Amino acid sequence: METQGVDSSGLPPIRRAEQLSGYSANQLRRMIAGITFLDELAGADSASAEWLGIPKFSHAEMLAKLWRRDREATLRLLRSRPVLRYESLSRLFETMASEAASPMSAGKRAQKSFEEKCRAVLLAESSRFTPFGAGSYRLLQPRVHHPYCRPALLLRAETGGRRLLWAGLDFVHKPIWDDAVLRQIMLIGVEARFLDLHFVFFPEGDVAGRAHRAIGELGFGNVRVAVLSGSAMDFAPNPANGGYAKSLRFQWIPPRLHATVAEYAVGQ
After folding, report:
1. What is the mean pLDDT of the chain?
2. In this structure, are 148 and 45 located in the same domain?
3. Is the pLDDT of residue 46 over 90?
């Protein structure tokens, strides 16, 4: 059923269908989805389509959702000739949806866990993170970001100099080096131009080494790679061929809204 344009009555077809059928547009679309499923099932497995016949609307709607999610699993279900109940079909759909989301969820959990481990090491009393030497430090989580500089965390330092010093902190927990990691490094290189230093934290592995080489080749001279190794943080040396891109440091505007993660002073 077409839902775009207008017919001779001046109404879009879906609105005209509402008038003629007495059903809402939402109900009609759900019916169309069910009919489409039955047609596609007949083409894919005529025996299962014949067994299913014309099911209840609620069953057809849920089977259509299962079909769109995983056709092979839906065919296996129908070939087993089950007793169809809406509740069991709904539970199966929820299971499929959660299984599809689980790899992404696992990745997010691993990223969060990695960030928490890095923070714990950086804030431990025996190894406080003081990239600018003695001074007062405040680790911040921005709530509102600079339009071109959006690190996960910011480190604000007062060292007795004429101005405040700022470092960005980003965390990259990726098992393999790919284009997405390279793009993230390139973006961090742009962000770093607004800051005094920018640190990128990695777990142990090949990704950290390749990132370090890429940073040197791209000339991101104030970007530092750090590797979490057990309960210690290893900071890579500056790449030998790391130059400095034009600084935008004096265009930096600190975030007005932020949460303070930690405050500490060293050597004062």
Report:
1. 85
2. no
3. yes
Closest CA to 222 of 255, 246, 201, 193: 193
Answer yes or no: do 60 and 20 share one domain: yes
The span from the CA of 133 to the CA of 208, in Å, is: 25
**Residues with Cβ within 8 Å of residue 58, at least 6 apart in sequence:** 86
Same domain? For 80 and 186 the reply is: no
| Claim to verify: residue 73 and residue 195 sit in the same structural domain | no
Residue 224's pLDDT is 95
Task: In whole angstroms, give the CA distance from residue 144 to residue 123.
Answer: 24
Q: Which candidate, 197, 201, 243, 239, places its Cα nearest to that of 222?
A: 197
One domain for residues 236 and 161? yes
Give the pLDDT confidence score for residue 243 in this predicted structure: 47
The answer to whether residue 91 sits within a structural domain is no
Please state, in angstroms and rounded to a whole number, the distance separating the CA atoms of residues 72 and 135. Answer: 62
Range of 204's domain?
Answer: 116-266
User: Hey, what are 38's tokens?
Assistant: 């039955």
CA distance 118 to 152: 12
Task: Identify the domain boundary among 84, 107, 140.
Answer: 84
Label residue 101 by pLDDT band (50, 70, 90): low
Q: What percent of the chain has pLDDT over 90?
A: 45
pTM: 0.58
135 plus 244 within the same structural domain: yes
Q: At what angle do helices 25-44 and 71-79 cross, to 10 degrees?
A: 70
